[in-house]
Amino acid sequence: MTAADGRAAALAAVAARLPGSAAERAAAAERRLAERPRGPGLAHVAAAAKAGTLAETFCAAASASGATVLRTAGAAASEAAIRKILAEHAPAGPVVRADLPRFAGLDDRPGGAHAGAAQPEDAAGVTRAAAGIAETGSVVLASDPETPTSLNFLPAIHIVTLSAAAIHAGLDDALAALRGPGRRPRTVNLITGPSRTGDIELTLQVGVHGPRAIFILVEDDD
Amino acid sequence: MTPLSSGGFPANARDALADEKLQAALVNVRTIFRGNRTRAVAATPEFEALRDAGAAVKRHVVENLDAYLERFIAAAEARGGVVHLCADAASARETIAAICRGEGAKLVTKGKSMVTEEIGLNPYLESQGFTPVETDLGEYIVQLRGEPPSHIIAPACHVKKEQVAETFRAAHPHRPAERDLSTHEALLAEARAELRARFLSADVGITGANLLIAETGDAVLVTNEGNGDLTQSLPRCHIVVASIEKLVPTLEDAATVLRVLGRSATGQAASSYTTLSGGVAQPGERGGPAACHVVILDNGRSAMLGGKYEEMLRCIRCGACINHCPIFAAVGGHAYGAVYVGPMGSVLTPLLQSLEEARHLPHACTMCGRCAEVCPMKIPLPDLLRRLREETHAAALTSARSRMGLRLWTFLAQHPSLYRGAGRLAAAALRLAGRRAGALRRWPLAGGWTRFRDLPVPQGGGFVARAYRGDRTGRAAEGDGADGQ
Ligand code: SF4
């Protein structure tokens, strides 16, 4: 049996047991895909959106998830903060950074910084989030050419800048915003706090495979 | 690895109850998991509405499953992925092995995936000359111990940290013998170092998926460790293994299901890592797999469509029913002798494997109903278990003695005057026999009860007799609720 036959047979096995006709089911699916109904949102997030306090809600949720959150006045203030975090947590180790002009200034730091994919020896990764989610305190990172996914997982210290204006209210808002013209990057990571595990005696431990610490710099517009 | 056998449940359960280390480990399941979920739900006033919405999403998907499968295939392949629909475990195993062969692979890293446990993937890959390495910490521990996972979201919850240390000493002989492995931190650091090397040199990465989004062709993977992300983003080939019921229609629907998943599983509003990935790395991306395959497994699920167990196809594998099950809390996961454990497993195992082999599992239930109360997908687990019990009875898989007893009871229940007479007679006989102690150690045909506890002697008339007298304050109403019927 070829792969195509296997697929057709498996689909037929499913179809044979479903109610209605194949055309009716296809129409029902198309309807939902076109209408994209939303589930119930969280009231406290909706209230924050209305009050214009999404950044505060985001900071509270991100802190609760174990991230260290700082608010900065813009890109220049963020760079100073990043240097300070690096000096403290990755003083000599190499650093991998997003391939964005705003981070190029980091290359002259002691230990250096490089753009591109993360290397095993990189002590910290510095990158920019495409968006944030107030509901969960998550940052949204896309595998664009400037921001490879490996930056988010290989280094033990993860530093992320996030524009306050890019904070969505709900998880559904953030996912819906992934839809858009053009091709989606392969990977979108929603990251909420550091890497953790409860796999030994259900005791929470931080930093198992990914970053031990994540710093989020929420930037107000310049 | 010990072969799994659900037929041995009664003996396994007895052994588990006597296993002191296991009993100590299970205390954590009862306290930590339940407490975490309770807090998360209490902090989410919308939780009930989210449950209803999540269950409705999955109900809609199940009813239109072929349409969503086709849509997913088209969307994933438009992004450069290849989708394989596999009817059974053998074809899924071979499909995956063929992909690994095509990649010239040796080392295969794996994120936690219950579906790959279901199809027995690791032993098969080993038999084909590949080296599969589990990277989820719990899965890594049980793989080194040669055991199956004992819980769908906490695979090593039956192991104490001293046992983990022993396991690591045996598995990592290249490390200094005198090293200190007495703390959680030390164990974690050693696992991190060991697995780092594997992530970096793997040829193929295999992960499961919590959801497949039909609209976009994304697989959604939820983890706390980040191992699934290193597994899927570093090797040149990523294989997603998922079952047909993991589909959701849209990104919005994914959000609804994710909102109940984390809260139900670990009490988190969001796990550390929720990753959407579809197809292959796009031009210009630095890193990411050049090949991506999605293997979608049926393996007995389509046979559940349209039947009396269809509701089980809404399950999102959160583990809440397991964490709240008094039977699981008493005997742990291995006693079930199956990949899926607890209430969801006692429904799935007979359906996906064989009713005959798994005949004991639907009976391993007190009908307390807590699983259904906490299930985010509102699956009526006790009802499904009851239906399976009826089937084991009809198929004569229960003991001759219990069938005889039930036949007798059925006959009496259909003849009210005989029932009342027999009831009075039995009560009188019990009173006579238990006159001295007020309780009975043994009674014919009630061995299943009296082996572990005493049978109380009836006090006063039966419920029916009292109901006829209009007695609504009787003692029967006081104590009998303890079993939570
Ligand atoms: S049956 Fe319900 S509670 Fe149990 S794992 Fe599935 S979704 Fe979770």
Task: Please name the defining characteristics of this protein.
heterodimer, A: 222 residues, alpha/beta, Rossmann fold, 2 domains, six-stranded parallel β-sheet, four-stranded mixed β-sheet, 22% strand, B: 485 residues, 22 helices, 11% strand, globular, binds iron/sulfur cluster
Describe the structure.
The complex is a heterodimer of chains A (222) and B (485). Chain A has helices spanning 3-15, 22-35, 43-51, 54-64, 75-89, 150-153, 171-176; strands at 68-72, 95-97, 113-115, 124-128, 131-133, 138-142, 157-163, 167-168, 187-191, 196-197, 205-206, 213-219. Chain A is globular. In chain A, the strands form 3 sheets. A 6-stranded parallel β-sheet of chain A has the order 1-12-7-4-2-3, sandwiched between helices. In chain A, strands 8-5-6-9 form a 4-stranded mixed β-sheet. In chain A, strands 10-11 form a two-stranded antiparallel ribbon. In chain A, 50% of the residues are buried. Chain A is α/β, with parallel strands linked by helices. The mean pLDDT of chain A is 95. The longest helix of chain A is centred in the middle third of the chain and has 15 residues, at 75-89. Chain B has 485 residues and is α/β, with parallel strands linked by helices. Chain B folds into 2 domains: 6-303, Rossmann fold, CATH 3.40.50.10420; 406-483, no CATH class. In chain B, 49% of the residues lie in helices and 11% in strands. Chain B has 22 helices and 12 strands. Chain B has helices spanning 9-18, 20-42, 47-63, 65-78, 89-102, 114-118, 121-127, 137-145, 161-171, 184-201, 227-233, 251-265, 320-323, 326-331, 342-352, 370-374, 381-394, 400-413, 416-433, 447-450, 463-469, 476-479, and strands at residues 82-86, 107-110, 131-134, 204-207, 211-213, 218-223, 237-243, 247-248, 273-277, 291-297, 439-440, 455-456. In chain B, the strands form 3 sheets. Chain B has a 6-stranded parallel β-sheet with strand order 1-10-7-4-2-3, sandwiched between helices. Chain B has a 4-stranded mixed β-sheet with strand order 8-5-6-9. In chain B, strand 5 and strand 6 (218-223) form a beta hairpin. In chain B, helix 3 (47-63) crosses helix 12 (251-265), helix 9 (161-171) packs across helix 10 and helix 15 (342-352) crosses helix 17 (381-394). The chains are: A alpha/beta (222), B alpha/beta (485). The interface between A and B is large, with 82 and 108 residues. The structure holds iron/sulfur cluster (SF4). Iron/sulfur cluster (SF4) binds next to helix 13 of chain B.
